[in-house]
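S2.1 Query sequence (Probable dual-specificity RNA methyltransferase RlmN)
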Amino acid sequence: MSDQPKPGQLTLVAPRRGKPQRHLADLTMAERRAAVAELGEKPFRADQLSRHYFAKLTGSPEQMTDLPGESRDRLVSQLMPSLLTPVREITCDDGMTRKTLWKLFDGSLVESVLMRYPDRVTMCVSSQAGCGMNCPFCATGQAGLTRNMSTAEIVEQVVAGARALAQGDVPGGPGRVSNIVFMGMGEPMANYKAVIGAVRRLVDPAPEGLGISARGVTVSTVGLVPAIKKLSDEGLPVTLAVSLHAPDDELRDTLVPINTRFKVAEVLGAAWEYAAKTKRRISIEYALIKDINDQEWRADLLGRLLKGKLVHVNLIPLNPTPGSKWTASRPEDERAFVRRLESHGVAVTVRDTRGREIDGACGQLAAATPAS
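Output structure tokens follow.
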């Protein structure tokens, strides 16, 4: 494991108000062409810029030799501004897992994680700086919401990972990002427009986007029912992950406070509608917390709720935050929970615990870093 501060460590500055600068990743191809035309250039320059960014993974004007020399710097500064500044990077698993803390233009801190496996590369990305859902066992939830991220700020996390892979900076040789999970900081469905824009940039073929398969993209939510229903009409066959964490309303009201508004039955009902429309299996995320939600009777209740549905349960050994009273379940309780779910015919796996030694849970690295 290594902990390597990057050049230009976090500088304490007063937050700047306003929005992040416009970036071509915020825009559709038609909007990019219009933006280039506004700058006095031929619209097809937008296609060239997009190819450099999404296909060649470069933001350096010096490498854009197909653009007029007198236009490169201006086009790049206006449509490809730097949105993320690396503050800190920590690696483990012999460099195969890399967590990066980023500073946004206003000093807000967000995190992304790149995880390389033999058959795929998964990136976990943030969609908000902080989170307003207030789940008590989550470091990000306890930090509160700072602001929504822009579409381009979300996309930039993936592009940064794709560049590192393409350049061979990640052990295992050059590679490409194959899977994206919106399970970093923030509640994706609470930043719906920017997240959907980011998903479209990720899955659109180059040069419009990165060309990642929509089936490799997972969007999580604690259960914002109207947004789930809206997502089912987007025509994007992404995986929906529901962070359930409890099968009964009494406990879930405490663990996931939005449950006081959208109850378990309503959340699961929206999820089954999504599965019916998209033919995509629902992922149920369930953080196992010692003596809180890991009882066998709760596994039975969950199994009865999910039996016969197009669903998979992803059990997550809780990654405890410093000073928290919440901790991971005992191994024997975890195994018993799995057995009870399987007895109901429900598919279940226990999530790989990668990143535990590098503050792997979303929000932990930011919480350990002085705020700007």
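The chain has two domains: 24-79, 85-367. Residues 1-15 have pLDDT under 50 and may be disordered.
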